[in-house]
Amino acid sequence: MKDYRFIGKATTRKDALDIVTGKTKFINDLSFPNMLYAKVLRSPFPHALIKSIDTAKAMKLPGVKAVLTYKDVPDWMGGLPRHVRVLDSKVRYVGDAVALIAAETEEIGEDALRLIRVEYEPLPAVYDVEKAMQPEAPQLYDQFPGNVLPQGIRVFGPNPLQEVVIGDIDQGMAEADFIVEGTYSYENIPNPLPPESPGAIAVWEGEDNLTVWSASQGPHILKVALQKMMGSSNVRSIGSPVGGSYGSKYMSWQYVFPAAALAKATRRPVKICYGRAEQLAAFTVRLGSRIHGKVGMKMDGSVTFLEGDWFVNTGAFSEMAQGMVAVGCGEAQLMLKCANWNLKPKVVCTNRTSSGQVRGFGGQELKCALVPILTLGMEKANIDPVDFFKKNYVKPGEGYYWRDGKWWVSKGIDFTNAIEEGARVFGWQEKWQGWLKPSSVEGTKRRGVGVGVHGNADVGEDVSEAFVRLDPDGQAIIYSGLAEHGTGQRSNICKMVAEILQISLERVSVTAADSSINPFEFGPVGSRGTYAIGSAVIEAAENAKKQLFDLMAPKFKVTPEELATVDGMVYVKGKNEEKLPWIAGLGYHGTCLGRGRFQPDFTLPNFMMIFTEVEVDIETGKVDLIRVVSATDVGQIIDPPSLINQLNGCLGSAGIDSALFEETVLDTRLGRIMNPNMIDYKWRTFAELPEMEHAILETPFPSHRFHAIGVGEIAPSPGPSAVLMAVANAIGVKIYDYPLTPDKILSALGKMDTLKKGGRG
């Protein structure tokens, strides 16, 4: 690889000092003169009609400035398709919004909530995805019979991917040496657990001009979405630094709507910030995923057909479920080389809190249920799973239907070397003993190993635009709507510009993520920051440098192509004894403004393989994650610490640990989430981290001048299925029920009756 001045080097993040010294202003740190605080009254019922609401006492409480019900909120609509009002006369999950309050302080707002009197007419509720589709099931929305939402998502194009139907299933059956089938699910609806709770501030100027400050991963796309959902309002969207998102805080109209409605009613700024319990019980969780599937294989590991019904439980409404289904269907094809498909998804509403965008975006949900079916075939053919994935993962020249419904051909690289390097680092050949066989046994402790794979072509999704301005004093400013969501991406695009212009990092800065000053930016989702956003920034920097050289060439009496620049000085290549500062060409009152634009490109899928080793105590059922090795190829590492942090983040944010203990516990008698706190919601602490190692290759991608690709979003996605495989191998029994809590292990081993007789409570 080329040796760069900044690229590939560990450099201090530009925002690091402000973060560690507390100077960074997150959304809850922001305050405005005359600002009010929003509170939401939430439903205690999973499904009910609101018969009456009495807000008189709440309105009389000193400090309360507005109380809104479904009768007096704006007629804005969210969801996909648009079907969710700001407030409605019907509630559809425990935690659904019933009334909104704006008060002088949060404490007054909390007091006012207790003064609202609501009369409900409870309705039957349904939580199971297949039961919800039955004719006698309670109906959440009159316009969606059978609780099945229409598929498709217009933003993905006129013919978005809604299913995978390719080839001839009957022919695939005839070609198969054997057929396996089963029903498997990934339905523990874990929470992405961003450290910072969701929040926004809304301010109106006149009737149609709304400014929103939000902890949003995609502030510019939030502006676009809000303007469509709210009608003619002119929205200015400003993204504050995000204290973690993991996909969940992107187009977050769910909490912007209440703030905007209250701000409109009071003509004052209104802030809304969820409490932790509110975040866990009334905000985004993962999709529930269940597959009835059938797979045909040959003894050499070739897959002849895949047929299945994929039932997707999106909860009370769809934020982006159809989009996640489209991407998941594309990602399945990256993992599995197969000529004959008939995979039919259905997106279904149930009476629990809604599912939304979470890191892994559909593909993780699909594969966590699909891979266990594939392992039945691997076991029957006695195929090493590493060899199976190596054989079947997409290679250059092979194609797939992506989320836009179009056929794309991979122009990327062969990930075989990354797979083999990961296996070497993990010691796979030494540890793998075969299906349902432990790698070691010591007393009651048994160890097992497993592996999973994932990839995504959304690294090149959607449009990014950027400007780069060169100032006479040798500084560069990047105009980009890129929000900082914890990964250091804003700092990394500064590295790209510094490398192109050969100026110090201190001389490069990025504008605030403000839609009123920056060009369009889709946002850092789908691992697109490195390729898509990076490409726009690179093009803008190169364009600005060309303009500078056009201005400077007459000074040296050479062509622009003969010039170079370093540290704010321009010189003729090979003759660096004579240099002129940028100001010599720009003048005291001039600048150069370079422009860059990235167009969607789905031809460069990325890749992640995760190897796991677990230890299971067959007497207690406790599972410990001992070791994790991630294997990938990123082309060119832009910033080593950023990449390592992304890979280390594979455990939480509804990632690997959703196979072990991360679970949103829903009481289906009452419809309530029972663990909306950080004690009862089980998650890993720093004291319980496993050994982690990464095998990272750098094979140049045909992406941009730095030949890099992003992998951040897919870091956790192969992990859950890898852990399931490892646990099954450790205990010698098939088990595919997430999460693998001790009771499930003991039940699989036939020991639950003994445990109960032993008197454990």
UniProtKB/TrEMBL annotation:
Key words of the record: Molybdenum, Oxidoreductase
Residues annotated as domain Aldehyde oxidase/xanthine dehydrogenase a/b hammerhead: 21-124
InterPro entries xrefs: Ald_Oxase/Xan_DH_a/b, Ald_Oxase/Xan_DH_a/b_sf, Ald_Oxase/xanthine_DH-like, AldOxase/xan_DH_MoCoBD1, AldOxase/xan_DH_MoCoBD2, AldOxase/xan_DH_Mopterin-bd_sf
Superkingdom field: Bacteria
UniProt KW Oxidoreductase keyword: yes
PANTHER family referenced in this protein's UniProt entry, alphabetically: ALDEHYDE OXIDASE 1-RELATED, XANTHINE DEHYDROGENASE
Name of this protein: Xanthine dehydrogenase family protein molybdopterin-binding subunit
Species for this entry: Desulfosporosinus nitroreducens
